[in-house]
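REQUEST ID: PR-0412
SUBMITTED BY: lab tech R.K.
PRIORITY: routine
TASK: structure prediction, single protein chain
INPUT:
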Amino acid sequence: MASRSSRPAVCLLVLGIWCTAPAWSNLPRRTLFGALPVLVAQTARADVITLQQAPLPKAFRDSVVPAAQALKEALEAEEAVGDSFIGEEAEKKLSKLEQKAGQLIQKYGERFISDRGLSDDDPLKKNYVYFLMLEAIDIFEDAVKSEKLPKARKEIIEKLQKVLEVAEQVGVE
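STATUS: complete
OUTPUT:
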């Protein structure tokens, strides 16, 4: 199996959840200012779709930006603390940040990721900000499940920062 650096991950939409799949990473990837090819699993075949950098619907922007910001702030606070002992007051503050992030991510997921969220053909699913946020959440969930959050924190924070930057660049409809 090739190393991660020689074969960048391609993202797949499987059962409504974005995940990385390095095995099919021979496809070219483009930067923020171009289109990003993404494989979308469909029964026995996969199609390449082009992600758009279109202005965001207001309801989506009003959900994704606070969720990304809150999760980023909570992860940065956890990273700053590290494994060191913190006092009761600092623990309460960190706990509040984590709870806020959890609530906002849950609301975002219910509204935009769950089966009851967007339809399969909703144009928002081809938006670069939507893709980046799904990718950040997927990395976060995988890190939590595998108990490797400390190692993944930096990558998640960078991904969330990218969500915020691109959301700012594309603006609102």
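NOTES: The first strand starts at residue 10 and ends at 14.
REVIEWED BY: pending
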